[in-house]
Specification:
By secondary structure, the chain is of the alpha+beta class. The protein folds into 2 domains: about 230 residues, Glutamine Phosphoribosylpyrophosphate, subunit 1, domain 1 (4-Layer Sandwich); about 170 residues, Rossmann fold, CATH 3.40.50. A 7-stranded antiparallel β-sheet has the order 3-2-4-1-10-9-11. Strands 5-6-7-8-12-13 form a 6-stranded antiparallel β-sheet, covered by helices on one side. Bound molecules: adenosine monophosphate (AMP). The site of adenosine monophosphate has 18 residues, from helix 13.
């Protein structure tokens, strides 16, 4: 869980500001730290813990100038939440300077790091992102950029959408499975690469297309090149981007996230109807699903919970005790809509079940007659190794419980999850184009101790 951005602009003075605004648009992808790196006769870096507007101010941004830059917002999956692990990460090699911003998670970073440390390389952070940069630095000593990336890719197991400065060259690269999103847009003064198209819109750019799985884009002196380094007969776009993670106003791999969520809501109404007075979302994650549910069922849409806009995502607080207290801080019931009513409550997913239980209890306390929980995804039964923070298998409420068991735990009158088929059809991509591991327990790449999807073919190198 992170957001990355890369900017090439003919206007040296604009680059840092474009990075800042596009990171602002990606703030939902990570709130722990933020940073930018810009090239001008050398790489200059500023990063810090906190939200984008806490890390930067006008004075800081005005100190930066340069045509090429990258930026990052972080939510940690590998490595703790510390300054050393914040990004962009800077690695100096004999071939020059590398600044890297990474969205994704490597499964084998520990092994790779150990091997490199045995060869005498010194690491400055715990992060898997530094492993990628150091590995690249190693290959650049002997090979050109494209061949170095090919070699790095062969060694990495996991997900990576990357923006990078290699001296004055801006590079964007997406892993051959396309697990994490990455797209490219055009600016009046150059180009933008970003995790989500909403960032392109925010800086007034024109969305061009998604970066292809296995594609490397290099921009230098205003010239843009695309190289397909790997081709794969199947992809593994993260389905959770559509369910929860991405902004609804983003286009990801050719699908408008808002439309996907609306379709899911409609489908949910057909799969799990209920006799109720109102349909309500869990704000904000359930809103679009609930609108779809209401359209399809003809049951009135009404808010039964109000969210305090100034409280961040509950999962962002690393400790369980804090997470539990924060539900009341974040949400409050609308008594006039709730009292005496039968409510269909719609949310995108149930992970641990903690929030859902508290929300249902909140509605009951406010006088709800019945609470029918409807979920816009199938049960989450397996952990994510690719960068969505979803807890361990033991913490996933649906991993060891039946649907009736989950319903009992969250104290709802009825509980309905979207079917896997319903989800795939609503997204509109094929089953072999999606990573569904958290829902099926089958992973798109081979991970020790886990089952792998049996797809026909594998990677082809170019
Ligand atoms: P819980 O009932 O405690 O499992 O919490 C479910 C809520 O957490 C739902 O409202 C989801 O929108 C939200 N959620 C799901 N996945 C994540 C995630 N990876 N990070 C933060 N929040 C999430």
């Amino acid at each position: 869980m992170c957001g990355v951005v890369g900017i090439y602009s003919e206007r040296e003075d604009l680059t840092p500001h474009l990075l800042y605004y596009s990171l602002y648009a990606l703030q939902h992808r990570g709130q722990e730290s933020a940073g930018i790196a810009v090239w001008r006769k050398g790489i200059k870096l500023h990063r810090g813990m906190g939200l984008v507007h806490e890390v930067f101010n006008r004075n800081v941004l005005n100190e930066f100038r340069g045509n090429a830059g990258i930026g990052h917002v972080r939510y940690s999956t590998t490595g703790s939440s510390t300054f050393e692990n914040s990004q962009p990460m800077l690695v100096r090699s004999r071939e020059g300077e590398i600044a890297i911003a990474h969205n994704g998670n490597l499964v084998n970073s520990f092994e790779l790091r150990k091997e490199m440390e045995m060869d005498g390389r010194v690491f400055h952070s715990e992060s898997d992102t530094e492993v990628i940069a150091q590995l690249l630095g190693k290959y650049l000593l002997h090979f050109d950029v494209l061949e170095s990336f090919r070699r790095v890719t062969r060694e990495l197991v996991g997900s990576f959408s990357i923006t990078m400065l290699l001296n004055d060259m801006l590079i964007a690269y997406r892993d051959p499975y396309g697990i994490k999103p990455l797209c490219i847009g055009e600016l009046d003064s150059g180009y933008i690469i970003a995790s989500e198209s909403a960032a392109i819109d925010t800086v007034g750019g024109k969305f061009l297309r998604d970066v292809m799985p296995g594609e490397l884009i290099a921009i230098r002196n205003g010239e843009i090149e695309s190289h397909i380094l790997f081709k794969n007969s199947y992809r593994a776009n993260c389905v959770f981007e559509y369910i929860y993670f991405a902004r609804p106003d983003s286009i990801i791999d050719g699908r408008y996230v808002y439309d996907v969520r609306l379709k899911i809501g409609k489908r949910l109404a057909r799969e799990h109807p209920a006799d109720a007075d109102i349909v309500s979302p869990v704000p904000d994650s359930g809103i679009t699903f609930a609108i779809g549910y209401s359209h399809e069922s003809g049951i009135d849409f009404a808010e039964s919970l109000i969210k305090n806009r100034y409280v961040g995502r509950t999962f962002i607080m690393p400790a369980q005790e804090l997470r539990e207290n924060s539900v009341r801080l974040k949400l409050n019931a609308v008594r006039s809509n709730v009292a005496g009513r039968k409510i269909i409550l719609v949310d995108d997913s149930i992970v641990r079940g903690t929030t859902s239980r508290r929300i249902v209890d909140m509605l009951r306390k406010a006088g709800a007659k019945e609470v029918h929980m409807r979920i816009g995804s199938p049960p989450i039964i397996a952990p994510c190794y690719f960068g969505i923070d979803m807890a361990t298998r033991e913490e996933l409420i649906a991993a060891f419980k039946s649907i009736e068991g989950v319903r009992f735990m969250i104290n709802a009158d009825t509980l309905g999850y979207l079917s896997l088929e319903g989800l795939i059809e609503s997204v509109g991509l094929k089953e072999n184009e999606l990573c569904l591991a958290c829902l099926t327990d089958l992973y798109p790449v081979s991970i020790p101790g886990e089952k792998c999807v049996q797809h026909q073919s594998s990677l082809v190198e170019f």
